[in-house]
Amino acid sequence: MTDRSGFERSAPRPRFGPVLTIAIIGLLIGLGLMAYAVRNTPGFFRTSASTPAAAASGATPAPAGAPTAAAAGAPATATLSAEAATLALRESALAAQLANLEARAARIDSDSAAAAGRAGRAEAILTAFAARRAIERGVGLGYLEGELRERFGPTLPNDVNAVIRSARAPVTLEDLRNSLNAAAPTLLASRSDWWSGLGAELRNLVVIHKAGTPSPLPSDRLARARRMIETGNVEGALAEVQRLPGAAGAGSWTAAAQRWIDARRALDTLEAAAITGAIAPPRTAPIAAAPLPGAVPSPVPESGEAAPAESGGLF
């Protein structure tokens, strides 16, 4: 009994002292570090305080003086109105620019039409001048014949035909001069009747005419006709030749002179029409329409194949 109690007294006790001491030291170190962090971190308490305040404001209803959702949407409505006004101003500015562009396009169209008219008039003038030069030289018109028909034919067909006829049988001043010299004996010849010839000779012995008027003698008329041919006055020369006694035998010369006169009158008319613009515009070939994409062209039948009938065929 005594031995058992002695054994119990001699058993070792648990050592909590060192453990407790270490725990207390760690707690003190943590408190010190926390105090150091609080002292050296600015706004620590402000952030901590704002978080509960924000939570409280979200949990509690807004006071009567705070702005509502409608009041918050007022700036957005004002912004939309300002944007709409800006868009309206931009639209009006674009409309004004579009109207200006349309006016410019109209002016450009009118200017281009006027330029085309002036160009057509200039081409018509050049065509008429070229035709005159060809006729004066006694050469054919060539391609000018088609140009004359195209530009002057619709409005002045008779003058165009006169110019073309004269060009196909050209007559120059040199031709008229030479043929007049060759026809002089015929023009000066009197009638074959001896009595008429004697009367003509007697009348020519004494010629009475007013001062300043041309002499009616046939030789003087022929001389005046030659001078008129030299100066290009074919009309006056033709009038003098037609008064000569042998004018009936010089029909070829009078016909050639009349052709020359008709051609010059027609050329004068064409040139005046070209200068004043009283001509029809040249016809342009129509522009062929472009084929539609994907369209298959119809096959062209060969020379040995007959084209199929549309309806009412024999078969």
Give the SSE map:
Layout: H1 2-9, H2 17-40, H3 44-59, H4 69-137, H5 144-152, H6 157-168, H7 173-182, H8 184-188, H9 194-205, H10 218-231, H11 234-242, H12 251-276
What features would you describe in this structure?
By secondary structure, the chain is mainly α. It has a domain of 66 residues. It is rod-shaped, with a radius of gyration of 61 Å. 15% of the residues are buried.
Return Rg in Å: 61 Å
Percentage of residues in helical conformation = 55-70%
Strand content: under 5%
What's the helix count?
Answer: 12
Largest sheet: none
How widely separated are the two ends? 149 Å
- Compute the number of strand runs: 0
Find the structural class using helix and strand composition. mainly alpha
Helix-strand pattern, N to C? HHHHHHHHHHHH
Low-confidence stretches: 48-62, 285-315
General form:
rod-shaped
Please tag this protein with its features:
rod-shaped; mainly alpha; transmembrane; 315 residues; membrane; 12 helices; disordered C terminus; transmembrane helix
Write a short abstract of this structure.
The protein is mainly α and 315 residues long. The protein has a domain at 184-249.
